[in-house]
Protein backbone atom coordinates (compact mmCIF):
# COMPACT_ATOMS: atom_id res chain seq x y z
CA UNK A 1 0.00 0.00 0.00
CA UNK A 2 2.86 2.41 0.82
CA UNK A 3 5.96 2.26 -1.29
CA UNK A 4 8.98 4.48 -0.66
CA UNK A 5 11.54 4.19 -3.41
CA UNK A 6 15.07 5.66 -3.50
CA UNK A 7 13.87 8.64 -1.48
CA UNK A 8 16.51 11.32 -1.00
CA UNK A 9 16.60 14.76 0.56
CA UNK A 10 19.54 17.07 0.22
CA UNK A 11 20.02 20.38 2.03
CA UNK A 12 22.86 21.95 0.05
CA UNK A 13 25.89 19.70 0.56
CA UNK A 14 24.20 17.73 3.31
CA UNK A 15 22.20 14.59 2.44
CA UNK A 16 19.65 14.21 5.25
CA UNK A 17 17.88 11.18 3.72
CA UNK A 18 20.00 9.08 1.44
CA UNK A 19 18.35 6.85 -1.15
CA UNK A 20 16.02 4.93 1.15
CA UNK A 21 13.42 2.36 0.09
CA UNK A 22 10.82 0.35 1.97
CA UNK A 23 7.36 -1.05 1.43
CA UNK A 24 4.47 -1.30 3.88
CA UNK A 25 1.89 -3.81 2.65
CA UNK A 26 -0.59 -3.65 5.53
CA UNK A 27 -1.49 -1.05 8.16
CA UNK A 28 0.94 -1.59 11.01
CA UNK A 29 2.70 0.41 13.66
CA UNK A 30 6.22 1.29 12.61
CA UNK A 31 8.88 2.83 14.81
CA UNK A 32 11.65 4.80 13.13
CA UNK A 33 14.64 4.97 15.43
CA UNK A 34 18.10 6.47 15.28
CA UNK A 35 20.24 9.07 16.92
CA UNK A 36 19.71 12.80 16.54
CA UNK A 37 20.35 13.94 12.96
CA UNK A 38 19.80 10.47 11.44
CA UNK A 39 17.10 11.85 9.11
CA UNK A 40 13.95 10.61 10.87
CA UNK A 41 12.06 13.94 10.86
CA UNK A 42 13.03 14.68 7.28
CA UNK A 43 11.65 11.29 6.21
CA UNK A 44 8.30 11.94 7.91
CA UNK A 45 8.12 15.48 6.54
CA UNK A 46 8.62 14.17 3.02
CA UNK A 47 5.95 11.52 3.55
CA UNK A 48 3.49 14.17 4.67
CA UNK A 49 4.69 16.53 1.90
CA UNK A 50 5.73 19.23 4.36
CA UNK A 51 9.10 18.88 2.63
CA UNK A 52 9.76 18.09 -1.02
CA UNK A 53 11.97 15.17 -1.93
CA UNK A 54 15.17 15.87 -3.89
CA UNK A 55 14.90 12.46 -5.58
CA UNK A 56 12.91 9.26 -5.46
CA UNK A 57 9.22 8.63 -4.99
CA UNK A 58 6.48 7.77 -2.53
CA UNK A 59 3.36 5.98 -3.73
CA UNK A 60 0.30 5.18 -1.66
CA UNK A 61 -2.26 2.72 -2.99
CA UNK A 62 -0.71 3.10 -6.43
CA UNK A 63 -0.85 6.89 -6.42
CA UNK A 64 2.26 9.03 -6.72
CA UNK A 65 2.49 11.37 -3.71
CA UNK A 66 5.84 13.06 -4.21
CA UNK A 67 4.67 15.37 -7.00
CA UNK A 68 1.22 16.39 -5.68
CA UNK A 69 0.53 20.12 -5.72
CA UNK A 70 -2.09 22.56 -4.40
CA UNK A 71 -5.44 21.03 -3.44
CA UNK A 72 -4.24 17.48 -4.14
CA UNK A 73 -1.30 17.95 -1.82
CA UNK A 74 -3.61 19.30 0.91
CA UNK A 75 -5.95 16.36 0.39
CA UNK A 76 -3.01 13.98 0.89
CA UNK A 77 -1.99 15.86 4.04
CA UNK A 78 -5.42 15.27 5.51
CA UNK A 79 -5.18 11.52 4.76
CA UNK A 80 -1.73 11.46 6.32
CA UNK A 81 -1.95 13.43 9.56
CA UNK A 82 1.10 14.57 11.48
CA UNK A 83 1.76 14.93 15.21
CA UNK A 84 4.78 16.83 16.52
CA UNK A 85 6.97 16.76 19.61
CA UNK A 86 5.83 20.26 20.63
CA UNK A 87 2.10 19.50 20.02
CA UNK A 88 1.65 22.57 17.72
CA UNK A 89 -1.66 23.56 19.27
CA UNK A 90 -2.98 27.14 19.45
CA UNK A 91 -2.25 27.71 23.16
CA UNK A 92 -4.92 30.35 23.89
CA UNK A 93 -7.65 28.58 21.98
CA UNK A 94 -9.95 26.10 23.74
CA UNK A 95 -9.32 22.39 23.34
CA UNK A 96 -12.36 21.60 21.22
CA UNK A 97 -11.55 24.42 18.74
CA UNK A 98 -8.01 23.07 18.47
CA UNK A 99 -9.45 19.65 17.60
CA UNK A 100 -11.85 21.20 15.07
CA UNK A 101 -8.82 22.72 13.34
CA UNK A 102 -8.23 19.18 12.07
CA UNK A 103 -11.02 19.78 9.56
CA UNK A 104 -9.41 22.95 8.12
CA UNK A 105 -8.31 21.29 4.90
CA UNK A 106 -11.91 20.30 4.19
CA UNK A 107 -13.57 23.65 4.91
CA UNK A 108 -14.14 26.85 2.96
CA UNK A 109 -12.17 30.00 3.76
CA UNK A 110 -15.43 31.70 4.77
CA UNK A 111 -16.31 29.01 7.32
CA UNK A 112 -12.75 29.08 8.65
CA UNK A 113 -12.66 32.88 8.98
CA UNK A 114 -15.83 33.00 11.02
CA UNK A 115 -15.12 29.86 13.03
CA UNK A 116 -18.27 28.19 11.74
CA UNK A 117 -18.31 24.51 12.54
CA UNK A 118 -21.22 22.16 11.86
CA UNK A 119 -22.82 20.67 15.00
CA UNK A 120 -21.93 17.20 13.76
CA UNK A 121 -18.22 18.13 13.71
CA UNK A 122 -18.43 19.51 17.24
CA UNK A 123 -20.07 16.27 18.45
CA UNK A 124 -17.40 14.24 16.72
CA UNK A 125 -14.62 16.31 18.27
CA UNK A 126 -16.08 15.70 21.74
CA UNK A 127 -16.44 11.97 21.02
CA UNK A 128 -12.80 11.76 19.99
CA UNK A 129 -11.70 13.68 23.10
CA UNK A 130 -13.79 11.29 25.17
CA UNK A 131 -12.12 8.31 23.53
CA UNK A 132 -8.76 9.76 24.51
CA UNK A 133 -9.93 10.36 28.08
CA UNK A 134 -9.81 14.17 28.00
CA UNK A 135 -13.40 15.25 27.16
CA UNK A 136 -13.69 16.96 30.55
CA UNK A 137 -11.06 19.48 29.38
CA UNK A 138 -12.89 20.36 26.14
CA UNK A 139 -13.67 23.95 27.11
CA UNK A 140 -10.29 24.78 28.68
CA UNK A 141 -7.56 26.64 26.89
CA UNK A 142 -5.00 24.25 25.44
CA UNK A 143 -2.19 25.96 27.39
CA UNK A 144 -3.90 25.03 30.68
CA UNK A 145 -3.37 21.30 30.05
CA UNK A 146 -0.36 19.15 30.93
CA UNK A 147 2.04 18.07 28.18
CA UNK A 148 0.55 14.60 27.99
CA UNK A 149 -2.98 16.01 27.76
CA UNK A 150 -1.88 18.48 25.05
CA UNK A 151 -0.37 15.67 23.03
CA UNK A 152 -3.68 13.80 23.28
CA UNK A 153 -5.43 16.94 21.99
CA UNK A 154 -2.99 16.90 19.06
CA UNK A 155 -3.86 13.23 18.44
CA UNK A 156 -7.57 14.13 18.58
CA UNK A 157 -6.98 16.89 16.02
CA UNK A 158 -5.25 14.35 13.78
CA UNK A 159 -8.13 11.87 14.19
CA UNK A 160 -10.61 14.60 13.25
CA UNK A 161 -9.11 14.37 9.75
CA UNK A 162 -10.01 10.66 9.70
CA UNK A 163 -6.57 9.88 8.29
CA UNK A 164 -5.36 6.56 6.84
CA UNK A 165 -1.90 7.22 8.23
CA UNK A 166 -0.70 8.99 11.37
CA UNK A 167 2.89 10.23 11.35
CA UNK A 168 4.20 11.06 14.81
CA UNK A 169 7.49 12.95 15.02
CA UNK A 170 9.00 12.27 18.45
CA UNK A 171 5.55 12.41 20.11
CA UNK A 172 6.86 11.59 23.59
CA UNK A 173 10.21 13.37 23.59
CA UNK A 174 8.89 16.21 25.77
CA UNK A 175 6.92 14.02 28.18
CA UNK A 176 7.62 12.33 31.49
CA UNK A 177 7.50 8.50 31.50
CA UNK A 178 3.90 8.27 32.71
CA UNK A 179 2.55 10.65 30.06
CA UNK A 180 4.79 9.02 27.46
CA UNK A 181 3.08 5.71 28.23
CA UNK A 182 -0.41 7.22 28.01
CA UNK A 183 0.36 8.80 24.62
CA UNK A 184 1.99 5.65 23.20
CA UNK A 185 -0.93 3.53 24.46
CA UNK A 186 -3.32 5.91 22.68
CA UNK A 187 -1.39 5.64 19.39
CA UNK A 188 -1.29 1.84 19.65
CA UNK A 189 -5.05 1.68 20.33
CA UNK A 190 -5.76 3.92 17.35
CA UNK A 191 -3.77 1.54 15.19
CA UNK A 192 -5.41 -1.61 16.57
CA UNK A 193 -9.00 -0.40 16.83
CA UNK A 194 -9.17 1.75 13.69
CA UNK A 195 -6.70 -0.11 11.48
CA UNK A 196 -4.75 3.08 10.76
CA UNK A 197 -1.08 2.93 9.90
CA UNK A 198 1.06 4.68 12.51
CA UNK A 199 4.64 5.70 11.78
CA UNK A 200 6.36 7.02 14.84
CA UNK A 201 9.83 8.57 15.17
CA UNK A 202 11.34 7.56 18.46
CA UNK A 203 14.65 8.23 20.09
CA UNK A 204 14.49 5.18 22.23
CA UNK A 205 14.71 1.47 21.64
CA UNK A 206 12.57 0.28 24.50
CA UNK A 207 9.52 2.20 23.28
CA UNK A 208 9.95 0.91 19.73
CA UNK A 209 10.27 -2.66 20.99
CA UNK A 210 7.25 -2.38 23.18
CA UNK A 211 4.78 -0.71 20.84
CA UNK A 212 5.81 -1.32 17.25
CA UNK A 213 5.25 -4.25 14.86
CA UNK A 214 8.19 -3.18 12.76
CA UNK A 215 11.25 -1.09 13.42
CA UNK A 216 13.20 0.92 10.87
CA UNK A 217 16.63 1.97 12.10
CA UNK A 218 18.26 4.98 10.44
CA UNK A 219 21.83 6.15 10.58
CA UNK A 220 23.30 9.05 8.58
CA UNK A 221 20.23 9.21 6.35
CA UNK A 222 20.24 5.52 5.45
CA UNK A 223 18.21 2.54 6.62
CA UNK A 224 20.52 0.20 8.51
CA UNK A 225 17.82 -2.01 10.07
CA UNK A 226 14.32 -2.97 8.96
CA UNK A 227 12.57 -5.78 10.76
CA UNK A 228 10.52 -7.00 13.67
CA UNK A 229 11.44 -5.75 17.16
CA UNK A 230 12.60 -9.26 18.13
CA UNK A 231 15.35 -9.05 15.52
CA UNK A 232 16.69 -5.90 17.12
CA UNK A 233 19.72 -7.41 18.81
CA UNK A 234 22.30 -5.41 20.74
CA UNK A 235 24.57 -5.66 17.70
CA UNK A 236 21.86 -4.24 15.43
CA UNK A 237 21.15 -1.49 17.96
CA UNK A 238 24.86 -0.65 18.14
CA UNK A 239 24.91 -0.33 14.39
CA UNK A 240 21.91 2.01 14.38
CA UNK A 241 23.29 4.25 17.10
CA UNK A 242 26.86 4.06 15.82
CA UNK A 243 28.02 3.04 19.28
CA UNK A 244 30.98 1.02 20.49
CA UNK A 245 31.20 -2.07 22.71
CA UNK A 246 30.23 0.00 25.73
CA UNK A 247 26.76 0.60 24.22
CA UNK A 248 23.99 0.20 26.75
CA UNK A 249 20.31 0.16 25.85
CA UNK A 250 19.64 1.98 29.10
CA UNK A 251 21.11 5.09 27.50
CA UNK A 252 18.23 5.14 25.00
CA UNK A 253 15.49 4.28 27.46
CA UNK A 254 12.36 6.36 28.10
CA UNK A 255 11.86 4.45 31.33
CA UNK A 256 8.33 3.39 30.43
CA UNK A 257 9.45 -0.14 31.37
CA UNK A 258 10.91 1.18 34.60
CA UNK A 259 7.60 2.87 35.33
CA UNK A 260 5.79 -0.42 34.86
CA UNK A 261 8.20 -2.15 37.21
CA UNK A 262 7.59 0.56 39.82
CA UNK A 263 3.83 0.14 39.46
CA UNK A 264 4.15 -3.63 39.77
CA UNK A 265 6.28 -3.27 42.85
CA UNK A 266 3.80 -0.80 44.35
CA UNK A 267 0.94 -3.20 43.59
CA UNK A 268 2.84 -6.04 45.25
CA UNK A 269 3.16 -4.03 48.47
CA UNK A 270 -0.43 -2.68 48.41
N1 LIG B 1 15.82 22.67 6.90
C1 LIG B 1 17.05 22.16 6.99
N2 LIG B 1 18.10 22.79 6.45
C2 LIG B 1 19.35 22.28 6.51
N3 LIG B 1 19.65 21.10 7.09
C3 LIG B 1 18.64 20.41 7.65
C4 LIG B 1 17.29 20.90 7.62
N4 LIG B 1 16.48 19.97 8.24
C5 LIG B 1 17.31 18.98 8.64
N5 LIG B 1 18.59 19.23 8.28
C6 LIG B 1 19.74 18.36 8.53
O1 LIG B 1 19.42 17.07 8.07
C7 LIG B 1 19.91 16.07 8.96
C8 LIG B 1 18.76 15.18 9.43
O2 LIG B 1 17.90 15.96 10.27
P1 LIG B 1 16.55 15.36 10.89
O3 LIG B 1 15.93 16.47 11.69
O4 LIG B 1 15.76 14.74 9.83
O5 LIG B 1 17.14 14.24 11.86
P2 LIG B 1 16.40 13.47 13.04
O6 LIG B 1 16.84 12.06 12.99
O7 LIG B 1 14.94 13.73 12.99
O8 LIG B 1 17.03 14.17 14.31
P3 LIG B 1 16.31 14.66 15.66
O9 LIG B 1 15.97 13.42 16.40
O10 LIG B 1 17.37 15.49 16.34
O11 LIG B 1 15.11 15.48 15.25
C9 LIG B 1 20.61 16.83 10.09
O12 LIG B 1 21.98 16.87 9.82
C10 LIG B 1 20.01 18.20 10.03
O13 LIG B 1 20.93 19.16 10.48
Automatic annotation (TrEMBL):
According to the lineage, what is the superkingdom? Bacteria
The residues covered by the ABC transporter domain are 2-245
Q: Which UniProt keywords apply?
A: ATP-binding, Cell membrane, Membrane, Nucleotide-binding, Translocase, Transport
Q: Mind telling me which SUPFAM superfamilies this protein's record contains?
A: P-loop containing nucleoside triphosphate hydrolases
Output the Gene Ontology terms for molecular function: ATP binding
Please verify whether the record's keywords include DNA-binding: no
Q: What is this protein called?
A: Phosphonate ABC transporter ATP-binding protein
Amino acid sequence: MLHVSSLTKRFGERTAVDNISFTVDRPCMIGVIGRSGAGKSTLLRMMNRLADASDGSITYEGREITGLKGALRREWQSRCAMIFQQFNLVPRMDVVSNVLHGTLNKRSTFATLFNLYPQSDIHRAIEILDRLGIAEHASKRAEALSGGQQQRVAIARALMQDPDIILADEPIASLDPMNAQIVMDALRRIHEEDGRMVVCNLHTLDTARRYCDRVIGMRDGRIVFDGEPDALTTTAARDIYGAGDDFSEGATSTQIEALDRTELAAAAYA
